[in-house]
Every structure is written in structure tokens, then in C-alpha cells.
Amino acid sequence: MANIAAQRIKREFKEVIKSEEVAKCAIKLELLNDSYTELKGEIAGPPDTPYEGGNFVLEIRVPETYPFNPPKVRFITKIWHPNISSVTGAICLDILKDQWAAAMTLRTVLLSLQALLSAAEPDDPQDAVVARQYKENLEMFKLTAKHWTNVYAGGPFVNSDCDDKIKRLIDMGIEEHQARVALSSYNWVLERATEQLFS
Amino acid sequence: MASSSSTEHTVKDNAGDGAQNPETKEEDKKDDSMFECNICLDTARDAVVSMCGHLFCWPCLHQWLETRPNRQVCPVCKAAISKEKVVPLYGRGSSKQEDPREKVPPRPAGQRTEQEPGNSFSGFGFGDNTFHMSFGIGAFPFGFFTSTFNIGDQRPHAAPQGTQQHMEEQFLSKIFLWLAIVFLTWLLMA
Ligand SMILES: [Zn+2]
Ligand SMILES: [Zn+2]
């Protein structure tokens, strides 16, 4: 059965590289091995979202039972989003689980993920901390997501306030990403982040 | 835009040396994609169509339904489907294709409704009603050809052996055969 998976990925791959989304640089697909089981996906952050201008890299693993079972996808680029783990990049999206249908393709998966960036579902979260911030303090969420997009995905919005606070923690001997996570989780209140880091 | 210019290109090429060019092939492929299985994306083999109109290979659809026994939905539109409610497509010369994949039970058979016996003449209905045919042209001198032909014919719709209708048919055919011989003899004598 591995044969049908490889055959299909081969066909899908040809279709994707000809698609208009690729022409518009909205999505990208790259093969990582000859057996068509590991691919690298890329999606552009959708406009009018905190992810705008960012480029998000995805790890795609094609199971032997594809397309009867969904591909395993996770974000390699760190991202601040209620439905994506800020730690592991694991994604909570129904079509990658029980709502998968065999006629879906890697192209539709990438487009669905792009749609997920535009429309988060905080009531079905993957990352509880992010989801809580999204529901309780939307502006703070947007600021944080923009900052992460800038730092990890090459987004254009630099937030010097965030950078300063991170620098303060780095000066205290905290690793940069750890500092960013702590500040992001505590709405960028330096005291609370410090308290959590040293407790 | 892209497609129209490519057609122009193809026409020009064909007018030239007639060499096989890749773009014509490309367009042929596009037409074929109408008949691609929605699961393996290859031309559908042992094709079946769901009630919602989506085309699949039977082995592909079967495996999909086996993979999710609790969620029997169309892989394209997610309409509720079931193994029993698919329509097989019988293309010309496609009946005996060996499938190298796993043993999959055969497709559900197509549903056939027999034509109503009353209106068999409307569609040039040879064979649907042997009795009428024989009777209609039996009086013609060479009608016995028709009659004899009908006796040995193994049509699916001929009345089964031993039934009342079968015996009547046999009887009538013999009468006409006999009449025709008499008629021919008379013609030869005259
Ligand atoms: Zn198929
Ligand atoms: Zn359907």
C-alpha cells in the first residue's frame, strides 16, 4: 500500500508546483526524500492578521496509509496561535484528525492551515495559555503573535518594547526563547515573568 | 488566457511537421482528469460512482470505507455514503481488469430493470418477443429462415424451456417452417 501513497504524493507534488497559490507565493512544497514520505511545506502569513509578512515552515510526514489517513503536519517555525502549540508546533485542526477525507491533498491542507491562521478557534485550543490570552486580552494576543512572527518568521513588525524586556531577562541569565515564552505567557509584565522564571 | 494561447500554439505546431508536441499531450491529460479517481488521482479502475456523483476506483473507495467504519462519508463532499449504494460504471472492454492490489470484494452490481413487455415494438425490439416477430414475417416465402433461426437462438429473453409459452412458440415455429416448405415446393412446381 505504500505504493499508492507515493504515487499520489508524486501527482500532488506536480499539481502543487503548477498551482496559482504557488505562483502567488502563498504556499510552497518541497520534497525532502526520494520515497515521497517527508516534505517541507511553507505558508505565507495571511494579510490583515498578526502573521502577515511572515513565512511559516511546516514539517509534513506522509504515512504509509495515505491518503486513507491524513498526513502528519506540524509547525517548525515557532508561532503564537491558540490552535498551535507554542512549544512543539503541534496543530489542532479537525481535517488533520477525524475530519480528514481521502480526496484532500497536501495543497488543501496547506490552504486550510493558512485559513487557520486567519481564523483561530480558541474554544478548541492546542495551546491553553495562548487561547486564554486570545479570549481575555485580544490586543495583547495580537501584539505577541506579531512579535513572534517578526522574530521567528521574518515578519516586518518590530516591537522594541518586547525586545527591551527580553533583553532585561537575558541579562539576568535567562535564555532568549525561554524569556520570550515567559513574557508572552504573562502579558509582557516583566515582574510576573521574572517571578515565574525564578520560582 | 493561458489556455487559449496554448491552443493556438498547438494548432500551429500541428500544421507544421506534425511532430508530437508535449502541449497536446498536456491537454489530453486534462480531459482524462474528468475520469480520475478522487482518491488515488489515477484513471479510475473498476469505477464506481457515489450517489453524490463522485467517481472512485472500487478498491480505493472500499479501503476508505474500511478505514473509517464509523464515519461512512464521501471523501470529496462528505455526504453520507455506503458500500451498497454505489453505481458501478461499465465502460467498453473494461470488464476483465486484474487488480494487483489486495483482494477486495467485487463491486455491487448495476441495477437493471427489465423492459416492459407491452411496448417491445417501439424500439426495434428484436428478441424481446419472438412470437410476434415470427408471426409478422412468417407468411413471407422465406420467412422460415427467420423461424428456424429463432428456434435455436439462445437469447436471454426467450421463454424458458418447458413453460406454456415455450411450447406454443415451438409449435408455431414448426407450423411456419412446414408452411414455408409447402410454399417453396409449390413455387418450384409452378
Ligand atoms: Zn483510485
Ligand atoms: Zn460526494
Which descriptors would you attach to this protein?
heterodimer; A: 199 residues; alpha+beta; Ubiquitin Conjugating Enzyme; 2 domains; four-stranded antiparallel β-sheet; elongated; B: 190 residues; Herpes Virus-1; three-stranded antiparallel β-sheet; 6 helices; 5% strand; disordered N terminus; binds zinc ion
Look up the CATH topology of the largest domain in chain B.
Answer: Herpes Virus-1
Largest sheet of chain A: 4 strands, antiparallel
Q: How many DSSP H or I helices of chain A?
A: 8
Strand order of the largest sheet of chain B: 2-1-3
Number of domains of chain B: 2
> Are there runs of chain B of 5+ residues with pLDDT below 50, and where?
1-29, 123-139, 141-156
Q: Identify the CATH class of the largest domain in chain B.
A: Alpha Beta
Identify the most extensive interface between protein chains.
Answer: A-B, 15 and 18 residues
Q: Globular, elongated, flat, extended or rod-shaped: what is the shape of chain A? A: elongated
CATH superfamily annotation of the largest domain in chain A: Ubiquitin Conjugating Enzyme
For the sheet with most strands of chain B, the description reads:
3 strands, antiparallel
At CATH level 2, the architecture of the largest domain in chain B is 2-Layer Sandwich
How does this structure look, described?
The complex is a heterodimer of chains A (199) and B (190). Chain A has eight helices and four strands, in the order H-H-E-E-E-E-H-H-H-H-H-H. Chain A has 199 residues and is of the alpha+beta class. Chain A folds into two domains: 2-118, Ubiquitin Conjugating Enzyme (Roll); 128-198, no CATH class. In chain A, a hairpin with a 6-residue loop joins strand 1 (27-31) and strand 2 (38-44). The longest helix of chain A has 17 residues, at 2-18. Chain A is elongated. Chain A starts with a helix and ends with a helix. Chain B has 190 residues and is mostly helical. Chain B folds into two domains: 2-103, 2-Layer Sandwich (Herpes Virus-1), CATH 3.30.40; 137-147 and 161-190. Chain B contains six helices and three strands; from the N terminus they run H-H-E-E-H-E-H-H-H. In chain B, strands 2-1-3 form a three-stranded antiparallel β-sheet. In chain B, strand 1 and strand 2 (55-57) form a beta hairpin. The radius of gyration of chain B is 28 Å and the shape is elongated. The termini of chain B are far apart. The chains are: A alpha+beta (199), B mainly alpha (190). Chain A binds chain B through residues 1, 4, 7-8, 11-12, 65, 67-69, 98, 101-104, and chain B through 38-42, 54, 60, 63-64, 67, 71, 73-76, 78, 101-102. Bound molecules: zinc ion (ZN) (2 copies). One zinc ion is lined by residues 37, 39-40, 42, 44, 56-57, 60 of chain B.
